[in-house]
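Justification of computing resources. Each target in the renewal requires a structure prediction run like the one illustrated here; the chain below, 253 residues long, is used simply to show the kind of job we budget for.
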Amino acid sequence: MKVAREPSVAIVTGGARGIGRRCALTLARAGFDIALVDLLRPELDRTAAEIREIGRDVVTFEADVSSFSNAQRIADETVAHFGRVDVLLNNAGRSMPKGILEITEDEFDRTIAINLKSCFNYIRAVAPAMQAQGGGRIISMSSLNAHTGGVTAAVSRFAYAAAKAGIIGMTKALAKELGPKILVNAICPGVIETELGNTLTRERGAALAQAGIALQRMGKPDDVAQLVLFLAASEPCFMTGQALVVDGFQFNC
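Resulting structure tokens:
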């Protein structure tokens, strides 16, 4: 797989741990310098140290992704440091497992702000730089929940599902608006096993894999990271406005 130019620069939100960390490391190994955004300072520093061990430059930002002013500052400082920004990976997210009769207005607003508004914040902040340099790639992390409404009927994640469905709509609209130079795509992971575990226990996850995933296993962060790398680096790429499901064909969710 050929990276478009050397060096290339990626902003990764929610990049301190889990899927975001794996995506950041995968991009770094492919030749990207990285701007990492997260609220978790110790994990942010550890991931940055791993990127430096790979031999790539990295800057870190401890910031709340729901703030547009933070996003604009981070975009500006990234361009000032690296000279460009080629890829934006909107990975930051938060689940809210509460039903419509239990969730508060503040909890709903916060879920939308972290999962959906954050994508607007960073796309709005980086798009001018991408347009000025002649192109870029925007990848936003949606979820299988956007298609199913939640992993199980027993635990409602309607606010999270609504936010992640909004990402798909935003992706399709902005692919038209920002094309042809800027490619905009979304990824919809299913059940992914991270080093921190999942909302589902490992035992339930294994049972789910046996009962309802064609590939008979939970997903790994690398399963998502390799697709991120494809969308970020493949040349040529005739793909935009897509919401790509990575779930091992989870047919019983």
